[in-house]
């Protein structure tokens, strides 16, 4: 069977349609570990019928002997080979020969934690991967690292499955904060789900406020809460900034800047009667922020002038 995506594999797992041989191959460890976890949940074998081997420690013949042994209590024995990327030429050929007529009483999971595009891989391993991925007896799952756009889709799907919405620009912010490592991103998503348990949607401010303990992150969060007219959260962030030793002048400058941006946008609207997105210069990137747009619609020119005068007094 040709390589399938993890999403397709998960559908097959739900339907309990697993092959007797499963190859998990790629350089994204989180996907490999998650797929292995799902396999174990389906097979539900007892500990005595679950065996883990490493090619550098155990000859292929011994691994296949274990595969021929019936399960002790469960329906199937689960044999896991965790380092197929280290298999030597002789043992690779033994597995290739086995694939001609494999036993179907148990389940063999082969794990290859390397990029499938690795040009330096030895010929014997390349041939083993080719035979596995083309065999009708083997289910081959591609666990390659995801591109940024794929991770954004992954993040959206994760929040959707948890019953949450996420703002358009929030996934990219989550990636900016945590890189493209899925394990880190999953940890942050879990943290956000706890932090936003009473909210229907998650925004950029939530990401920074929940995970950011730096002064810069809290300054951004303060701006977000000012836009949202949330006094309680604004004071909480303000207290955190002061406890971190942030200079009061920096905090005051951030507050003044937030109100100044709103004042400029509202003034332009009042002068020309157009939306702020049509009026502001292209280099003013904050015009695209959803919290800013909402804040602008909730305020009058006079209230903003009063706020700025209060700060300057």
Average pLDDT: 81
Give the percentage of residues in beta strands.
5-15%
Count of runs of 4 or more consecutive helical residues: 15
**Helix fraction by DSSP (H/I, runs of at least 4):** 55-70%
Number of strands: 7
**Low-pLDDT segments, ≥5 res:** 279-288
**Largest sheet, spatial ordering of strands:** 2-3-4-1-5
Largest sheet: 5 strands, parallel
Secondary-structure element pattern, one letter each:
HEHEHEHEHEHEHHEHHHHHHH
Explain this structure to me?
The chain is 56% helix and 9% strand. α6 runs parallel beside α8, α10 (215-227) runs antiparallel to α11 and α10 (215-227) runs parallel beside α12 (248-272). The strands form two sheets. It has a five-stranded parallel β-sheet with strand order 2-3-4-1-5, with helices on both faces. A two-stranded parallel ribbon has the order 6-7. The protein has helices at residues 6-14, 29-43, 60-68, 89-98, 123-134, 148-161, 170-178, 182-195, 204-211, 215-227, 231-243, 248-272, 276-279, 290-297, 301-312; strands at 21-25, 50-53, 78-81, 107-112, 138-142, 165-166, 201-202. It is elongated. With 313 residues, the chain is an alpha/beta fold. It contains 15 helices and seven strands. Residues 279-288 have low confidence and may be disordered.
């Amino acid at each position: 069977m040709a390589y399938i995506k993890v999403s397709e594999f998960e559908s097959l797992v739900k339907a309990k349609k697993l092959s007797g041989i499963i190859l998990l191959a790629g350089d994204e460890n989180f996907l490999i570990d998650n797929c292995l976890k799902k396999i174990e949940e389906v097979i539900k074998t007892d500990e005595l019928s679950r065996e883990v081997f490493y090619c550098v420690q155990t000859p292929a013949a011994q691994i296949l002997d274990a595969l021929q042994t019936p399960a002790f209590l469960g329906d199937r024995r689960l044999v896991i080979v965790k380092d197929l990327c280290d298999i030597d030429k002789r043992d690779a050929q033994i597995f290739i020969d086995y694939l001609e007529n494999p036993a179907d009483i148990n389940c063999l999971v082969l794990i290859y934690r390397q990029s499938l595009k690795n040009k330096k891989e030895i010929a014997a391993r390349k041939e083993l991967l080719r035979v596995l991925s083309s065999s009708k007896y083997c289910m081959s799952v591609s666990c390659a690292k995801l591109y940024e756009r794929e991770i954004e889709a992954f993040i959206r799907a994760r929040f959707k499955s948890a019953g949450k919405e996420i703002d358009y620009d929030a996934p990219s912010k989550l990636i900016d904060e945590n890189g493209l490592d899925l394990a880190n991103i999953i940890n942050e998503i879990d943290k956000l789900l706890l932090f936003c348990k009473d909210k229907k949607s998650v925004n950029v401010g939530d990401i920074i406020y929940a995970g950011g303990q730096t002064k810069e992150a809290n300054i951004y969060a303060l701006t977000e809460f000012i836009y949202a007219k949330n006094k309680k959260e604004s004071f909480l962030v303000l207290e955190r900034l002061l406890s971190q030793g942030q200079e009061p002048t920096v905090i005051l400058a951030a507050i003044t800047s937030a109100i100044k941006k709103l004042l400029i946008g509202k003034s332009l609207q009042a002068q020309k009667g157009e939306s702020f997105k049509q009026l502001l210069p292209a280099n003013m990137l904050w015009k695209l922020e959803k919290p800013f747009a909402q804040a602008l619609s909730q305020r009058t020119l006079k209230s903003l002038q009063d706020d700025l005068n209060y700060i300057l007094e």
